[in-house]
Amino acid sequence: MNTNITSTTTIVNLVDQLDIIRQYIAIWFGLFLVIFGNIGNLLLITLFFSDTLLRVNPCSRYILSSSICDLVQLNSTLVIGILADGFNHDLTIRFSLCCKLRNYFDQLSSTTTLTFILLATIERYLLTSSKHHSCRLKHLLTKTRPISLVTVAIWSLISIPNLIEHSNTRQCQLTRSVTHAFIGLICLSFLPILLMFIFGVLTLNNLRKLGKHAQIIRAEQIYKRLLHIDKQLTILLLIQISIISLATLPFMTSYTYIIIFRHRFRSSSWRAWENLILLIIRFIHYLHNCIDFYIYMLVSSMFRHHFIKLMKRYYWYWSKGCCGRGNRRKRSLMRRHSNEEITKKCIFKQPISQKHSVLIIY
C-alpha cells in the first residue's frame, strides 16, 4: 500500500516538474522566437523593398512574400500557443472562433510559405537551366504579382474546411479521420519539401555545369551586380531549403505520431513527456519562420553590405532632421543620392565607370 502511494506521489511530482519545464520553455523560447522572428522578417522586408534591383528580382519577390506569411504565422499561431502553454490562457478553448481562425491561418500561412519558396526554387532552376523550352516558363514565373495572388487565393479556399471542422471536446482539434490527416500531411508538407529538394539539387547541378563553362562577356557594372545578386539569391535559397527540411522533418514525424496514438490510452507521466517533446519539436518547426534574415546576414556579404548601407541611410536621415515640413528638398536629395548610390556603386565598394567592363559569368 505504501509502495503504491509512494509511486503515485513520484509520478505526480514528475508530471508537475515536466509541466513547469514546459511552461518555462513556452514562455522564454517562445517569446524569443516571436521577438527575433518579427524583427528579422521586418528587416528582411525593409531590405528587399529598399533595394531597386532586389525589388524587381522574381526570386526576391517570392522570398518577400514568404516573409510576410512568416509574420502572419508567428503572430497568430505561435502567439496563441505561447499564451496556452506558457501562461495557461488558452483562447482556443474559451472562444471557438479563435480556435477556427488559428487552424485556418496556421494552414494558410504555412502552405503559402512553402509554396512561395517552391516557386522561388523553380525560378532559380529555370534561370540556371540552358534548355530552350524553359524560357517560356521562366518568363511566366517573372509575373510574380498575379502568381502570388492566385497562390494565396487557392490556399485560402483549400483552408476553409479548417473553419468548419471542429471537435466537440474542450481541446482545439480538427475532426478528421486518420486517412484524411495522412493525405493532408503528404500534400501540404511532404510533397512541397520533396519538390523543393528536387529542384534545389537540379539548380545546384546547373550551377556546377555553368561553372565549368564560364564565359567572359562585356557588360555594364549594373548588370554585373544583377548577376551577382542572382548568384547570391540562389545560394541563399538552397540554404533556406535545407533549413526548412531539417525543421519540418521532426514536425512531420510528431504529427504522424499524434495521428496514430491520439485515441489510445497513455499514462499521465507519458502524456507529460509527450507534451514537452511535442512543444520543443513545434518550436523547432517555427525556427525556419524566424531565422531567414539572420542566415542571410551570416552567409551573404551582399546582404551585409546593403544592410549596413541602409542603417547608415536611416541614421543620416534622422540625425540631419529630415522629418520636418520645411525639409522636403533634403528628403528629395537624399532619395536621389541613395538611388544613385545603388546604381553606381559595386557590391564590393569599387567605383563604377560608365564604360563597359569585363565580367565572368558562373
From TrEMBL:
Subcellular compartments: Membrane
GO cellular component, one term: plasma membrane
Keywords in alphabetical order: G-protein coupled receptor, Membrane, Receptor, Transducer, Transmembrane, Transmembrane helix
Membrane association type: Multi-pass membrane protein
Domain of life, source organism: Eukaryota
Transmembrane portions of the chain: 25-50, 62-84, 179-202, 233-260, 280-303
InterPro entries per the UniProt record, alphabetical: GPCR_Rhodpsn, GPCR_Rhodpsn_7TM
Annotated ranges, domain G-protein coupled receptors family 1 profile: 40-296
One of the record's GO molecular function terms: G protein-coupled receptor activity
Principal subcellular localisation of the protein: membrane
Cross-referenced Gene3D superfamilies: Rhodopsin 7-helix transmembrane proteins
PANTHER family xrefs: G-PROTEIN COUPLED RECEPTOR (PTHR24243), THYROTROPIN-RELEASING HORMONE RECEPTOR (PTHR24243:SF233)
The name this protein goes by in its record: G-protein coupled receptors family 1 profile domain-containing protein
The species this protein was found in: Didymodactylos carnosus
